[in-house]
Design brief:
Elements (H helix, E strand, L loop, with lengths): L10 E4 L7 E7 L3 H9 L10 E5 L8 E8 L10 E7 L2 H13 L3 E2 L4 H8 L5 H5 L1 H5 L4 H13 L1 H23 L6 H4 L2 H28 L3 E5 L6 H9 L17 E6 L6 E6 L9 H15 L3 E7 L6 H10 L5 E5 L16 E2 L8 H14 L12 H20 L5 H18 L6 H8 L7
Parallel strand pairs: 1-6, 7-9, 7-10, 10-11, 11-12
Antiparallel strand pairs: 1-2, 2-5, 3-4, 4-5, 8-9
This protein binds guanosine-5'-triphosphate and magnesium ion.
Magnesium ion binds next to helix 10.
Length: 451
């Protein structure tokens, strides 16, 4: 059943993940009071006041103590009559309460159903709702900041909504013109259409670019690469402050790559740090496989730290690695600065000399890495299109605008009118003014339960 067809149902779902001290179950819909009465015995709840209740979980279960918060319509998240049950945070209690609610005529909510109702009842725009999954899933403060701006700031909508009004007007004129083709040039202002295409692209293109940055910045990967024995694993351990990878004087120690999340202090970004198999020509099948994996991973890594041994003359393997990664502009680091520097070390053009053993130079290396990460971060002052579905719509709109531009002077009125209408519809979808029920289904199906 579509979300729109379930509007009359009273729905319930857990709003918190398992494992916390308190679990919250949300209820929304016209039968909320009736369900609460059967569950707690209370006839009346003062809206927004916490009430300690004993929950009747059925004949075979002991009663549960819970705080009940009641919201009268329309002053609630969904705009409907709603309640929150604050329970002890055990999975069993939540499951038992939910199955009791089902017996009392509440229906298990679908993912995103609460937010869907909030949009339907004008509590938030579709664009604001579309930012919610990112807001819920944020890993660090930067992601949270961006998702909040998208959810509450409406950066995109501020420009898109007035543009949509212009597209609406144009669409109306275009459709009227179909019946009077001889008046096309008179009534369809081609120059104005051209300007409108440009203005729409001026909004769309930076938003799409910024969105791509946002995706890439989600958890950037930093790969530590280099020939065997240069100290990759020791550096990996030092950065993580953890004895995680095996460190040994034997070259070719690391085979499988190791990954760990690493929190950079400034900017406050979580990155994925990878220690990899040393790169060299080798006959060993297992080591070869490790090297293949290093190379595959390097292709999908945003940043590469190319490590070499600054106390030793650069080897053929160092030079080959330098050439291999050159297109990815690696941070080139000379390690083992605690030992005497080899006169040829400079030939590798290192950005920095460090010692993974003593920690010398490591803070400076972190600063250099942070600078590179910052350079790829999205601009929080520009719009970001959160939610994959909105990105797809934005890309379709970009293609539609290009098509319309190519049709402007082609002289085919019918195609021109269709193209105008398509641009208007897609911009409408992007600003949440769409009658397409499937769009709503697609957006809300990716939400978590209870949102
Ligand atoms: N003096 C000194 N020794 C170091 C330093 N970094 C690493 N080593 C030593 O160099 C040897 C190799 O270190 P690893 O971290 O295992 O090197 P790796 O690059 O991971 O090597 P593979 O896994 O074989 O590719 C070990 O004996 C380390 O103790 C350093 O900064 N100074
Ligand atoms: Mg290693």
């Amino acid at each position: 059943m579509r979300l729109a067809e379930r509007i009359g149902l009273t729905i319930a779902a857990p709003a918190t993940a398992t494992g916390g001290a308190i679990a919250i179950i949300r209820i929304s819909g016209p039968a909320t009071s009736a369900v609460l009465k059967k569950l707690t015995g209370h006839d009346h709840f003062v809206p927004r006041r916490a009430t300690l209740c004993s929950l009747d979980l059925g004949p075979r279960a002991a009663a549960e103590q819970a705080i009940v918060l009641y919201f009268a319509a329309p002053a609630s998240y969904t705009g409907e009559e709603m309640a929150e049950l604050h329970l002890h945070g055990g999975a069993g209690t939540v499951e038992e309460t939910l199955s009791r609610l089902t017996e009392l005529d509440a229906t298990p909510a679908a993912p995103g159903e609460f937010s869907f109702r909030a949009v339907v009842n004008g509590k938030m725009t579709l664009a604001q709702a579309a930012a919610i999954p990112d807001l819920v899933a944020t890993q660090d403060r930067l992601q949270a900041d961006i998702a909040r701006r998208a959810a509450y700031g409406g950066l995109f909508e501020q420009v898109a909504v007035p543009l949509l009004t212009q597209w609406d007007e144009l669409d109306t004129i275009a459709n009227a013109t179909v019946d009077f083709p001889e008046q096309v040039t008179e009534h369809l202002p081609l120059a104005k259409i051209s300007t409108l295409i440009e203005e729409t692209e001026r909004l769309l293109v930076p938003a799409l670019e910024n969105t791509q940055r946002f995706d890439r910045a989600a958890t950037p990967r930093i790969l530590i690469a280099g020939r065997p024995n240069v100290g990759k694993s020791l550096l990996f351990n030092r950065l993580l402050c953890l004895d995680r990878a095996i460190v040994s004087p034997e070259p070719g120690t690391t085979r499988d790559y190791l990954t760990a999340l690493w929190q950079l202090p400034l900017p406050a970004v979580t990155v994925e740090l990878c220690d990899t198999a040393g790169l060299r020509d080798t006959a060993s099948g297992i080591e070869k496989e490790g090297i293949t994996r290093t190379l595959t991973l390097s292709e999908v890594s945003e940043h590469i730290v190319l490590l070499f041994d600054g106390s030793d003359a650069p080897t053929a393997a160092d030079i080959a690695a330098r050439a291999l990664f050159a297109p990815k502009k690696p941070l080139v680091i000379a390690n083992k600065a605690d030992l005497a520097r080899h006169p040829e070390a400079e030939s590798m053009a290192p950005d920095l000399f460090i010692s993974a053993l003593t920690g010398e130079g490591v803070p400076e290396m972190i600063t250099l890495l942070a600078g590179r990460i910052m350079a790829l971060l999205p601009d929080a002052a520009l719009p970001i299109l959160l939610h994959a579905e909105r990105r797809r719509v934005a890309e379709r709109l970009y293609a539609a605008l290009e098509e319309l531009r190519s049709l402007l002077f082609a002289g085919d009125l019918a195609l021109l009118v269709i193209a105008i209408s398509r641009c208007r519809t897609l911009l409408g979808e992007l600003t949440g003014r769409s009658d397409d029920p499937d769009l709503y289904e697609r957006i809300f199906s990716s939400f978590c339960l209870g949102k």
